[in-house]
Amino acid sequence: MRDVLFCLRRLFAIAWALDRRRFATGATLLLLGAVATPVVGLAAGGVVDGVDAGAPRSATAWGVTLAVALAGELMLAHFAHLYYFELAELTEERLNRDLVRLVNGSAHLDRSDDPAHADRVDLLRQDVLQMRETVQSGLQLGATAVQVLLTAAVLVTLSPWFLLLIAAAVVPVVAGRRAETQFQETREAQSTTTRGVRHLRRLATSPGSQKEIRLSGGGDYLLRRQRDLLGGYRSAMARADRRYALRRGLGQLAFGVAYVGAVVWAFELVRQGRASAGDVVLTVVLATQLATQMATGIELLGTVHRAAAGLRRFAALEAEQTAEALPTAGLPPAAATDRGLRLEGLRFRYPGADEDTLRGIDLDLPGGTSVAVVGENGAGKSTLLKLLTGLYPPTGGRILVGGTDLAEVAPDAWRERTAALHQDFARVELGLRESVGIGHLPAGFAHEAVGAALDRARADGLGEQVGLDGVLGTGYADGRDLSGGQWQAVGFARTLMRPDPLLLVLDEPGSALDALAEQRLVDAYQETAREVAATVGGVTVFVTHRLSTVQLADHIVVLEGGRVVEQGTHGQLLVAGGRYADLWGLQARAYAR
Ligand SMILES: Nc1ncnc2c1ncn2[C@@H]1O[C@H](COP(=O)(O)OP(=O)(O)OP(=O)(O)O)[C@@H](O)[C@H]1O
């Protein structure tokens, strides 16, 4: 019951804050409709007693009451629905917004990389979809509770033994709750499977991956994988469903026996002369109503109870995020720095991983320089960039920005001074202006600012082709899909919206570009970096596998197994004849062939 009260308190508080008038009117109409239900029983008994006693006036008065109560029961519930339906929609929307804020509100990305957290967020997305129904169910549950209480009060005035009927009515409630909890546990245990199925479905149907799936003929394989996953899921859920139905059925059976006993007892009271024929009708009507009310109540309780589990998940996430919320306090980063960045004994281990990805990195990156980070797949290059941009806190060592430990700098303020294009950049399917302008909201999507960012990213041609208000992506009827390189250029322009960044980060610009386009992109970046270096002394760090691009950097860092194994200029590293020289030789031979 605690769960149910918690859920109702929370949802009603949101609904009340969103629209008091609608909430109060909907609830009042529902309650009036609830009162009408037991009145139907009283009036039906009154009619029978009136007729039995040969009192036509009384019978007529009760008849009119019966008609009004029946009409009220139907009409009031209908009008109430008009009010609370919209309110429920508003509540669901609000929770959706809260979820987006929560998922994006933590200081670091650690949680997003945790599969258990991903499962929880996935469940929460489904939970929020149910909240609309829950608000309605919660209000109806309140009205049903009033109905049950009134019905019970009337029955008890006939005979205290009818209390047993009410006690029996609790059995299906308890059994239903148990069944619901078990069902929920099974559902949660299956969340990894459902997430997997959804991923496979998206993979097989989304425009982004469909080309590859079709060409590789992998569709059948994905379907088989889905079938296998679903096979296990369905049998687990079918078992849970059967257990659920059995527990609830047994609960209902207990009430059914008590119901028959109550009707028999009413006839016995008449036989003893302690009750009238009208009382028997009243008992039959009310006991039937009680059965329906309890069944409805269990159904509604189930919905609210299910939602309570979701709201608890929500509250837990909220509490965790509040504890880890982006601290607003902290030092501001230096307005300008020629000391650049310094990494001291930097170590990092991903949450849940068995070993460190970065194993003690010491680097000096003076302000105004461009730094290329190279190394084999998995060397830790992208991880290093994530730490520099503050997406993760180091698990050891520190990063100094202009001499100040990054851990002491306000994360928000640091983010405002970094511009980053990651390997898995976002394809923001909105208008070109928004897709670029979202990189720096204070600029207010202004034509000049967005146009300048597109120019700097050398994507002005795209601006002319699509138009600043042209819609990107196939998610819209009038949207236009872009090539991988064009999407990257939009992402690049987005990063260049940031004014005066102290750190510019570019992770594998060549992943979607040909060599020439990558060179243009890096040139554009270098140019921006030079401008920034001249004004604030920013550092540019880029990761690429193309050494033709790397050679232009002021400083080259070679990572291997999370450690710096070499560093220097292109010339110095070639002379040193180490790892970099080997890689250079390999790529030069490949080009010469
Ligand atoms: N979110 C994560 N959780 C756990 N381990 C991770 C995560 N991201 C990366 N790793 C691991 O950290 C190591 C370094 O990954 P990283 O992406 O930094 O390498 P990289 O040098 O950028 O590789 P690539 O050239 O392939 O992009 C890899 O072994 C990878 O499996």
UniProtKB/TrEMBL annotation:
Provenance organism: Cellulomonas iranensis
InterPro entries: AAA+_ATPase, ABC1_TM_dom, ABC1_TM_sf, ABC_transporter-like_ATP-bd, ABC_transporter-like_CS, P-loop_NTPase, Type_1_exporter
Keyword Protein transport: no
Entry's transmembrane regions: 27-48, 148-175, 249-267
Subcellular location: Cell membrane
Keyword Nucleotide-binding attributed: yes
Bilayer topology: Multi-pass membrane protein
Lineage: Bacteria, Bacillati, Actinomycetota, Actinomycetes, Micrococcales
The ABC transmembrane type-1 domain, residue ranges: 24-306
Top-rank taxon: Bacteria
Coiled coil: none
Keyword terms of this UniProt record: ATP-binding, Membrane, Nucleotide-binding, Transmembrane, Transmembrane helix
Gene Ontology terms for molecular function: ATP binding
Leader sequence residues: none
Residue ranges of every copy of the ABC transporter domain listed in the record: 341-586
Pfam families: ABC_tran
Principal subcellular localization: membrane
Protein name according to UniProt: ATP-binding cassette subfamily B protein
